[in-house]
Design brief:
- This protein is of the alpha+beta class.
- The protein has 17 helices and 21 strands.
- Strands 1, 8, 9, 10, 11, 12, 13, 14, 15, 16, 17 and 18 form a 12-stranded mixed β-sheet that branches.
- Strand 15, helix 13 (about 390-405) and strand 16 (about 410-415) form a beta-alpha-beta unit.
- It is globular.
- Mean pLDDT is about 90; it is low at about 1-30.
Amino acid sequence: MERRDFMRIAGAASILPFLRYLPTDANAATGSNGVLVVVSGNNINSLDLHRKGTNRPSYQVTVNIYDRLVKFGVKTLPDGSYAYDSTKIEPEIAQSWEFSDDKKSITFKINPKAKFWDGTPVTAHDVKWSFDRAVTLGGFPTVQMKAGSMSDPKQFVVVDDMTFRIDLPFPSKLTLPDLAVPIPFIINSKVAKANATTNDPWATEYLHKTPAGSGPYKILRWDPGQQFVYQRNEDYAIAQKPAIKRVIVREVPSASTRRALLERKDADLYTDVPPKDVKEFKEQGKIKVSGAPIDNCMHVLGLNVKYKPFDNKKVRQAIAYAIPYEEILSSAAYGRGKPMFGASSKTPSNIVWPQPSPYSTNIKKAKKLLEEAGFKDGFETTLSYNLGLASWQEPTALLIQEALKKIGIKVKLDKIPGANWRTAALVEKRLPMHLENFGGWLNYPDYYFFWAYKYGHLFNSSNYKNEKIEKLTDETLHMEVDNPKYEGMIKEMIEIVYDDVPRIPLYQPYLDAAMQKNIDGYASWFHRQLDCTTITKS
């Protein structure tokens, strides 16, 4: 028996436990157009995004079962795929909105057709309670709201039952798009308050397992570690109801099993597909692939400037010239990435972000810089990577290890379990050299700089600090893009960080999904989670 045939049989056997968990009408193979079966590598740990410890996959639930005041639009890409449109803000709960003359307040009119699942109307009181909750509970939700200059419950004003106002300390280009991210979702405050306690005034324990929303889907069931099921909200009236009546999202940790399920037509949709599978699906032509580059996102090699010799800029530049960029793009990303290397000039010609750095593979230049830095004979170090992202990080780490050997740097690979990565890399920031990925939810270069290059901020895993960058980031963060000063300041910021290279850009990754050919309407989103509302099944 050929190894390939054996692996296919083994994969098929592993599918049987999966099928036992599906309701009898849910198997995609039955041809029921009202049901969509999705396979995913990671599952949710809460139905409440504001709750402390809620994981990234849980963002998906918020997107599908709750509404926000506004949402981003969707655009069609040149290859026919769909992706969110960061330049287009559309109504959701808000029927309309208006800025004050000084741009320091926004007034929203609530759509009278907006109803919670229990039939009660969505009011400005519910919006205020939900926003008060987001800025008060702390953690990621509070930080994300602050990015849009929303940090104090006093900023949120109920004008009347159907009119809500946000007062701002200063005008900011980030406020309106920040209302379209998953965080400021609107909760049925009457239900939440009825289930709050003295020790839990924001009903986090109740909403953790029992959502109270108005969105296009409801949660029918949740079996932690196995699956969760969406049921369409038949009373949804503020927009067209989703085409799919029921969505079953199954947790299948093995990528090979997820692929086998899709190929056997026991699943309709496979999210966050590894680049290797994408390449092979495209070559075979039996499975449809849809995806797009992730806005404001790069895969990078981080060099922690608090650890010698990475405090030496010439060492960092030497490594940047030693990286085998083309090999990484072809062997780790399988070509599914936009190159972020090889710019023709050290001076940016525009403010498109992300944009390529001026580095490309040049071993001779790398050796010269390392010698100038005082490390002619090289040194020893550790390269850490996240096992939870091993599909791209492991081959990338191996290629970097081999390349740095050519300039005398001996690299020991350090594999860190996904569950421990965030603490080691982002909270404690204790990894000397590491692979990292960050994508900013708000699609502006200064927003990326705010998170990844400002000292002490979460995604600045390199402990980088540059006073000029600190100042320029603060000055541009809320500045309108059409301000005459904006372009010049952003170009200066890009030039500085690419000269200092605490983060060596590798490539801009794609977010890909694979699906049966009768599935349409899938869109790639900045939050990297599945939005079921636009999907159809013919």
